[in-house]
């Protein structure tokens, strides 16, 4: 069954600062009514692919430890990593916003932004422990409590040109991985596991999400822009 975004959003209007590149008294109307369906389309596209197509590069971790009476020396290969499951998705309500800015050519651009949050993201691996006392094989999973992707959609006010950027972030967590089968070696690998080793891969997913987000941003009608508006604080 597909995950559903439960989105109860309160749009907070931002008071524009007196910065050189901010266009005052111009704003995008109802940005939440735009960014929410865009992000929903992105999620639906990921579910159709499905999620497991988001891969994690192989990582090799050297080990040289004496654990009680066992000498653990060799390399642990984490291979075939992928996004195994996501337990929930939502949109950060405080992330939804808009601005109208001037670009380097002094043309007005409308920015709409919002952040997708994934909950309990499980990364799966095949593990090959190539040790001095013999090879061992396992499967392993590691859970990130949250992973976020911020979407910035920028469109020319007087034109159709649009750009979409995606910024992925994963907070560092102390969750321990789960190995199968479990034995004295996997117990040692658990304590030596680096929870940040999938972070680079999650950042790399930006390149996968960007074209999906661009298509979604084009499919949803861009909201109206109000000129000479009194901004609501």
Summarize the structure in words.
It contains 3 helices and 10 strands; from the N terminus they run βαββββββββααβ. The chain is of the alpha+beta class. It has one domain: Bactericidal permeability-increasing protein, domain 1, CATH 3.15.10. The strands form 2 sheets. Strands 2, 3, 4, 5, 6, 7, 8 and 9 form an 8-stranded antiparallel sheet that branches. Strands 1-10 form a two-stranded antiparallel ribbon.
Quick structural summary:
Helices cover 20% and strands 44% of the residues. By secondary structure, it is α+β, with helices and mostly antiparallel strands. A hairpin with a 2-residue loop joins strand 3 (59-67) and strand 4 (70-91).
Features:
233 residues, alpha+beta, Bactericidal permeability-increasing protein, domain 1, eight-stranded antiparallel beta sheet, 20% helix, elongated, disordered N terminus
CATH C-level name: Alpha Beta
| Element-level helix/strand string | EHEEEEEEEEHHE
CATH topology title: Bactericidal permeability-increasing protein, domain 1
Mean pLDDT: 86
Domain count: 1
Share of helix, binned:
10-25%
Beta-sheet strand percentage?
A: 35-45%
Kindly name the structural category: alpha+beta
Discrete helix count: 3
Cα end-to-end separation: 41 Å
CATH architecture: Super Roll
Give the overall shape, derived from the CA principal axes. elongated
Low-confidence runs:
1-20
Largest sheet: 8 strands, antiparallel
Question: Total number of β-strand segments?
Answer: 10
Computed Rg: 22 Å
